[in-house]
Every structure is written in C-alpha cells, then in structure tokens.
Amino acid sequence: MSLLIIAGSSRKASINRALQQRLAEVAEANGEQYYCYPPEELDAPIYNGDYEEENGVPSNIQKLATAVKEATKIIVVTPEYNSSIPPLLKNAIDWSSRLETNPWAGKTVLLAGASPGQFGAVRSMTDLRGVFCNLDAWVAPAIASIAKTDADKIAELDADFLSTFMSQETNLATGLDSVIRHCAIRLGSHRYGAFLRNSGRA
C-alpha cells in the first residue's frame, strides 16, 4: 500500500466521505496504489485506561495501526465538530497511540476537510496538526480546505488541484513557498489556496 485515505465521518451522506472518494479517484487516475479506510472501522469505545487494562487495544484499532504502518503517505479527511476534531477520528487516533509502537511516527500526513460553512474544517485541521506533530508525524504544510460545498461540488473538484495537494512530500527541497504557490490555483470562480480553500456538510 502506498497511499492511505482516512475519512473521519461514518455518516453515509458525509461530504467528507465524498472527498475521500474523490481523492481516491484522482489517485487511481494517477496510477497510485491507495486504500480508502472504511470510516465505520474507526469506531471504538471511548478511550479509558481501565478498559485498556482489561481488554487491551481494540482489534479494529490494531488493524488501523497496521494500515498506517504500511502506508508511505496518509491523507486524513476530517469534518469539523464544534470547531475541532470529530470524536470518531480523535478517539481512533488516541487508541492507536496506545500501542507499543507508535504507528504515526515518521509518517507523512496530509490534511483535508470539507464543510458547508465558510471555514472548510480548517479549525479541525489546525487541531489535528498539533496532534500528529505530537505523535512525531510530518504534517504537510498545505491543507485542502473545501468550504461552502456539497457532494456535487466535491465530485467535480479539480484533479490537478488534488494531484498537487497529494504530491506533497517530507522532502521540502523546493521550499514551502513553492508548495504554497503550486497549491494556490484558480478554477473559474473557485479559489483553492494554500489553506486550499473552496466552497461546502460534514
């Protein structure tokens, strides 16, 4: 597996699940190996030390950790709940950090998110950046923030824009300014910037 795409919403009509699928379509068109992690498989009991002592880390979280370890790059697609990380996603990350070996250490993580409101899940991604940095992951500088959007708009997101976003690597030989410049493209009336922003329900 090369690219792992995780969506932090298990709601069937979630626009973030739609964004996960759109990213997968572009990855496939680019000839990349990828795996869309089923959001429902992130579900686990709310982390509790007593539960962990008695039952250990849930088996589905161990499966998530294996997928993370095997991936060379991970895209985390997140909605925004009360200006922060959705509990499904945060709980899964917290549980995965309890394993003997931290699966996130040294991994390249890209952040994306969509919402029908004006912020495009950027506040959730800001919080996630801190979480993943604490777990010793490298978090790409440019995020894909898709604001004021819906499923139809997600399905039509520009493939070149998404390809540029997904091309971010740990090696920043070209420099952050170059990443931002290439990730700031205009398509018609939509703006995709380095806080890669466009128009969109979590």
Task: Describe this entry's structure for a reader.
By secondary structure, this protein is α/β, with parallel strands linked by helices. It has 8 helices and 9 strands. Strands 1, 2, 3, 4, 5, 6 and 9 form a 7-stranded parallel sheet that branches. Strands 7-8 form a two-stranded antiparallel sheet. The model is unreliable at 172-202 (pLDDT under 50).
List the secondary-structure elements in sequence, H or E.
Answer: EHEHHEHEHEEHHHEEE
Count of discrete alpha- or pi-helical segments spanning 4 or more residues: 8
Question: What is the mean predicted local confidence, pLDDT?
Answer: 88
Largest sheet: 7 strands, parallel
What low-confidence regions span 5 or more consecutive residues with pLDDT below 50?
172-202
DSSP E strands, number: 9
| Global outline | globular
The termini sit apart by 27 Å
Q: Give the helix level as a range of percent.
A: 25-40%
Proportion of beta-strand residues: 15-25%
Rg to the nearest angstrom? 16 Å
Strand-pairing-aware structural class: alpha/beta
